[in-house]
Write a structure and sequence with these properties.
single chain; alpha/beta; Rossmann fold; 2 domains; seven-stranded parallel sheet; binds nicotinamide-adenine-dinucleotide
């Protein structure tokens, strides 16, 4: 990926940071976007130490704000003159609650970040990629983008929408050399998932984690590095013809009917 320029949103931790590492290993230059300034700076410092030969810039932005998304795209073009890949990864889970009593403000926030944040990214990066006649986009959906998940109505709605928008972008802009896919991770042990286990069992989140892992065909949670490797492939030129797909990375869990044992 030498001389390629890849933007990652939500890059300060979790799946975004893991993908940054895998792309850096392949020599790609990075534009790292997050709204958590302190965590982003820490991650950028770590990457710069480990990968001194690539160029890395960081931009503080909230992806739910259209102007801030336009700005991170503009800044990336200003610095590098092109954008080869966008990993639309920033997202939140929201608070877990049944559909009929879900807090409407949290609902709207989840939609603003998970759905609109991805849409704004597409809206501003696609014209840049069209000029190059080349681009690779990976949007983060979830197994919650292909299945229902108890107590997560806005999350599931937003992630189904991300899967749909990925098909849409693939269909409309394949003619311009732009391949767009969504990924659907299962439970991958990141700070977001650790927080979810705290909500399920505040007294013993590790017990909730172990209970969850038992349901997976592999009896384990996923590792962020595995997701990073998939993203590093889909967002590179090595991906020549995969587009419009929602690719599950979940140990097979979304294909299982009934209990694991
Ligand atoms: P995380 O909470 O560990 O990291 C998310 C990062 O995104 C954080 O650095 C956070 O500051 C940033 N972020 C959140 N909202 C933002 C905003 N509005 N603007 C800019 N940055 C923002 O989460 P994660 O587990 O790494 O999840 C990353 C993505 O993967 C999310 O879209 C999530 O829904 C999706 N996902 C995760 C899992 C999993 O198991 N971890 C499974 C399926 C899907």
């Amino acid at each position: 990926m030498k001389n390629k320029v890849i933007i990652i949103t939500g890059a300060a931790m979790g799946l975004g940071f893991a993908a940054a590492k895998e792309i850096a290993k392949k020599g790609g230059n990075l534009v790292l976007v997050d709204f958590n300034e302190e965590a982003l700076q820490k991650s950028v410092n770590e990457l710069k130490d480990e990968f001194p030969d690539i160029e890395i810039i960081s931009i503080i932005a909230d992806v739910s704000d259209e102007e801030q998304v336009k700005n991170y795209i503009d800044k990336a073009v200003e610095k590098f003159g092109r954008i080869d890949g966008l990993y639309n990864n920033a997202g939140i889970e929201g608070r877990q609650a049944p559909l009929t009593t879900y807090d409407i403000n949290v609902f709207k926030k989840v939609i603003d970040i998970n759905l609109m944040g991805v849409y704004y990214g597409l809206k501003y990066v696609i014209p840049v990629m069209q000029k190059q006649n080349y681009g690779r986009i990976v949007n983060v959906a979830s197994v919650g983008g292909i299945r229902g998940v108890l107590n997560q109505t806005p999350y599931v709605a937003s992630k189904h929408a991300v899967s749909g928008m990925s098909k849409q972008a693939a269909v409309e802009y394949g003619k311009d050399g732009i391949l767009t896919n969504a990924i659907a991770p299962g439970a991958i042990l990141t700070p977001m998932v650790a927080e979810a286990f705290k909500q399920v069992n505040p007294d013993d989140p590790k017990a909730a984690e172990a209970e969850y892992a038992k349901r997976n065909p592999t009896r384990a949670l996923g590792d962020p590095q595995d997701v990073g490797k998939l993203v590093a492939f889909l967002i590179s030129e090595e991906n020549g013809y995969i587009s419009g797909q929602t690719i599950a990375i979940d140990g097979g869990e979304s294909n299982m009917y009934g209990n694991a044992e």
